Amino acid sequence: MADRKAVVLVARRTFDDAIARLREHFEVRVNDDDAVWPQDELIRRLQGVQGVYITGSEQIDATLLDACPDLRAVCSMAVGYNNVDLPACTARGVLVSNAPDVLTETTADFGFALMMATARRISESEHFLRRGEWHKWSYDMFAGSDVHGSTLGILGMGRIGQAIARRGHLGFGMRVIYHNRSRLAPALEAPLAAQWVEKDALLQQADHLVIVVPYSPASHHAIGARELGLMKPSATLTNIARGGVVDDAALAQALATRRIAAAGLDVFEGEPQVHPGLLTVPNVVLTPHIASASIPTRLAMSHLAVDNLIAALSGGRPPTALNPELLNRGAEPA
Ligand code: DGY
């Protein structure tokens, strides 16, 4: 193995520049068809592979790790890593990295855009126009709710939540309230004029609720029928976090009965499947998990995953390792 190049599998299609960088260091296997491989196929492809470049679609669990004993590094181009069993990787000495920071502003732009499209009924009115139903102007046609000057409620106040709060406070004069497991330091709260509140108070007071909390068993269905029942009937809900944080069946029901005014959803339980109830209600804006999808940002995410792989497999320090304790223990380079 001394002078043999390590083998890297790129589990989904990505930028040519990223592949070219990997080829400078490794023997690289790619997924030409961009297929989402079933688990047994992924395991088969990982035989004899030391490093894998993944996205949010691949499931890296204990069964896969046990079946792929050569694997030393799992590097994701996504920031969310609920698809990776981090403790199982750490227990087996497998380095894991994600791609934080590089997508923060782009994702916040999208979250804000989705919230505005939801409040101002942009998709619903466009569909009406495309159906040829626009015959006259009327005073209340697609009248929605204001964003400027309203109360922005943020569930999950990490980097992306703070970037959304900044847009709301500085750009739109919004009152910012948030709920997070831990309160931000006063030095972070002050420039956003952000106020920590209990979760129920957040739901009761927000005109526009934006969900940015990572998915974990603890956040599963953090927003369900009870929580939707606490919201104002005029409120909107925007989810750019992960499917499963919101109970989509309960949300579809709340939209159909106008328990809340509208929703903007970029992520779904069981995506790319979408709950059928969400496809038939008019008061929802639906997008296919594209919050970080600007070309520069996706490129940066991809290069960060490559940086991590190169470092992880050459005994270096991956810039955004999720289990850096392995480095301190002196994990063996491939
Ligand atoms: C992320 O990076 O987590 C985005 O949701 C894309 O998967």
TrEMBL record:
<protein>
    <submittedName>
        <fullName>Gluconate 2-dehydrogenase</fullName>
    </submittedName>
</protein>
<dbReference type="GO" id="GO:0005829">
    <property type="term" value="C:cytosol"/>
</dbReference>
<keyword id="KW-0520">NAD</keyword>
<dbReference type="GO" id="GO:0030267">
    <property type="term" value="F:glyoxylate reductase (NADPH) activity"/>
</dbReference>
<dbReference type="InterPro" id="IPR006139">
    <property type="entry name" value="D-isomer_2_OHA_DH_cat_dom"/>
</dbReference>
<comment type="similarity">
    <text>Belongs to the D-isomer specific 2-hydroxyacid dehydrogenase family.</text>
</comment>
<dbReference type="GO" id="GO:0051287">
    <property type="term" value="F:NAD binding"/>
</dbReference>
<keyword id="KW-0560">Oxidoreductase</keyword>
<feature type="domain" description="D-isomer specific 2-hydroxyacid dehydrogenase catalytic">
    <location>
        <begin position="9"/>
        <end position="323"/>
    </location>
</feature>
<feature type="domain" description="D-isomer specific 2-hydroxyacid dehydrogenase NAD-binding">
    <location>
        <begin position="112"/>
        <end position="291"/>
    </location>
</feature>
<dbReference type="InterPro" id="IPR036291">
    <property type="entry name" value="NAD(P)-bd_dom_sf"/>
</dbReference>
<dbReference type="InterPro" id="IPR029752">
    <property type="entry name" value="D-isomer_DH_CS1"/>
</dbReference>
<dbReference type="InterPro" id="IPR050223">
    <property type="entry name" value="D-isomer_2-hydroxyacid_DH"/>
</dbReference>
<dbReference type="Pfam" id="PF02826">
    <property type="entry name" value="2-Hacid_dh_C"/>
</dbReference>
<dbReference type="GO" id="GO:0016618">
    <property type="term" value="F:hydroxypyruvate reductase [NAD(P)H] activity"/>
</dbReference>
<dbReference type="Pfam" id="PF00389">
    <property type="entry name" value="2-Hacid_dh"/>
</dbReference>
<dbReference type="InterPro" id="IPR006140">
    <property type="entry name" value="D-isomer_DH_NAD-bd"/>
</dbReference>
